[in-house]
Amino acid sequence: MSKLTRIATPLIAVAMMSSTPFLALAQTTPQTQNSATQDWNSPPAGTEQAQAYKDGIQAAQLDTAARRKIDPKTSHLYLHPPVKGNAKDAYRNSFEAGYQAAVKHGSPS
């Protein structure tokens, strides 16, 4: 039994020390991915534009999940924006920007 202990103990120590760099790498990777996600996922300033951008992202995700044609101009919210008057064009522009960003980045959620 003492011979097994003399062989196994150093092997366990080497295995534990060699796994440390992999754990450190695994801890830093999601942070860089989250910052890249936040760049395209953050809407422009303004309440209506921000909501339109988010609506565009959601519409792209739904179209992708339902395997529909990927085109923001066929979406219900693009055709019938929930705003009135001159704000429709601004809503549509932000909606399309959010839709295109989600398609470009392949946003699953």
Structure notes:
The chain has 109 residues and is mainly alpha-helical. It has one domain (2-105). Helices cover 74% and strands 0% of the residues. Helix 3 crosses helix 5.
Poorly predicted residue ranges = none
The main β sheet shows up as: none
Strand content: under 5%
The topology string of helices and strands comes to: HHHHH
Tags for this model:
109 residues, 74% helix, 0% strand
What would you say about this model in short?
This protein has one domain (2-105). 74% of the residues lie in helices and 0% in strands. It is mainly alpha-helical and 109 residues long.
Give the topology, please.
Blueprint (H helix, E strand, L loop, with lengths): L1 H17 L1 H22 L5 H19 L10 H4 L7 H19 L4
